[in-house]
TrEMBL record:
Superkingdom as given in the UniProt entry: Eukaryota
Keyword Thylakoid: no
Signal peptide: none
InterPro entries xrefs: IML2/TPR_39 (IPR019412), TPR-like_helical_dom_sf (IPR011990)
Keyword tags: TPR repeat
Similarity comment text for this entry: Belongs to the TTC39 family.
Protein name: TT39A protein
SUPFAM superfamilies assigned to the protein according to its UniProt record, in alphabetical order: TPR-like
Species of provenance: Pavo cristatus
């Protein structure tokens, strides 16, 4: 009865209990409950049969795949989610009376998803986790339009999440992905942590063992600089479910960096080594994990004992740590060192665009817009 009351509260006002719409919404809410309770395959299976005929089933199914793609960054997941969202839009268009649900949610979801398109064009840049940041700049650096498609999409998702309804659950999930993860993966790293906490609180209370929300909680703690609390959340997330192994990899990646920030190199190496053995996101990120594993062992060596490539990898790692510690001028010096030693690098040529990207982000934070644009152009 309590569960039915919860689901009824999410239905549009005035919906008859016996209507097809009511049944569809109840089925979709049940699927969402399965998904948020870590029963991922059951959730998708319960929706798939009706995705061609029901707008609500189609959108719920597509949203789950979108969230999976956002959290795993598996290229196949990204492609599958994008195609499924387009199919969901087609299903919505077949509906005789499109609702505000479809207009707000589908537009918002697809517009935010557009940031993914840069993934295939800048795969060379994907070498270390922070280097995912701001990739959309490479396709449209510092757009001068007053309101970008991404911003319009966010506004529509915020509108959808503002009321307590069925669509608010889906819109809130996408916003949590955006504020805690996507903005740092595809944006400038200026997420709204306070908004993410506000969005997360009721869902974490309802699903305290939900892997999705535990990961979001870990990201929020990381962004706030509470590294020990973040580590606890990521470990809880890994323990919460065993079906979605790619999700474990995301936690390993975050744990690797958490221990790097703490300068606990053995633990950082442990998670980097796990990634190098298990990770299948892409050849680039697999190489990153292996390279990081090696670099953790090099951090205590004298600089004169290292090749220029290894020196520059260490400079990049130190620069990133200094950046997150707020020591901007020191970080800038490390990134400039890499750029100035470009001709000495024999193998790890990805270091140059990465260093230029980091410099550009630093310049943006200092309102040095023109210099940032020039660096981003070079980094292409």
């Amino acid at each position: 009865p309590a569960e039915r009351a919860h689901q009824n509260a999410l239905l549009p006002p005035g919906t008859a209990a016996s209507s097809d719409l009511n049944v569809a919404l109840h089925e979709c809410m049940a699927a969402l409950d399965l998904f948020l309770s870590n029963k991922f395959s059951d959730a998708l299976a319960s929706l798939q049969a009706k995705t061609k005929d029901s707008m609500y089933h189609a959108l719920t199914y597509a949203t789950i795949l979108e969230m999976q793609a956002m959290m795993t960054f598996d290229p196949q997941d990204i492609m599958n989610a994008g195609n499924t969202m387009k199919e969901a839009q087609a299903t919505c268009q077949k509906t005789s009376s499109p609702t505000s649900f479809s207009k707000d949610f589908i537009k918002g979801g697809i517009k935010v998803r557009n940031s993914y398109q840069t993934y295939r064009y800048v795969r060379v840049v994907i070498k270390l986790s922070v280097l995912f940041e701001c990739l959309w700049f490479f396709s449209n650096p510092l757009s001068s339009s007053p309101l970008s498609a991404q911003e319009r999409g966010l506004l529509q998702l915020q509108e959808g999440a503002s009321s307590y309804s069925f669509r608010s659950v889906l819109c809130t999930m996408l916003l949590l992905c955006y504020h805690t993860f996507m903005t740092f993966v595809l944006g400038t790293g200026k997420g709204n942590v306070e908004e993410a906490e506000r969005l997360l609180k009721p869902y974490l209370a309802r699903y305290p063992k939900g892997a999705i929300f535990l990961f979001f909680a870990g990201r929020i703690e990381t962004l706030k600089g509470n590294i020990d609390a973040a580590v606890n959340r990521y470990e809880e997330c890994c323990e919460a479910q065993q079906y979605w192994k790619q999700f474990h990899h995301m936690c390993y990646w975050e744990l690797m960096w958490c221990f790097t920030y703490k300068r606990q190199w053995k633990m950082a190496f442990f998670y980097a080594d796990l990634l190098s053995k298990e990770n299948t996101w892409s050849k680039e990120s697999l190489y990153s994990s292996k390279k990081f594993s090696e670099t953790c062992h090099l951090l205590h060596l004298a600089a004169t004992e290292l090749l220029a490539d290894d020196q520059c990898v260490i400079k990049l790692l130190k620069g990133l740590c200094l950046k997150h510690l707020g020591k901007i001028s020191e970080a800038e010096g490390h990134f400039n060192y890499i750029y100035l030693n470009e001709k000495k690098i024999k193998y790890d040529h990805y270091l140059i665009p990465n260093a230029l990207l980091e410099l550009a982000l630093l310049y943006l934070d200092q309102d040095r817009r023109e210099e940032a644009i020039k660096l981003l152009e070079r980094a292409k």
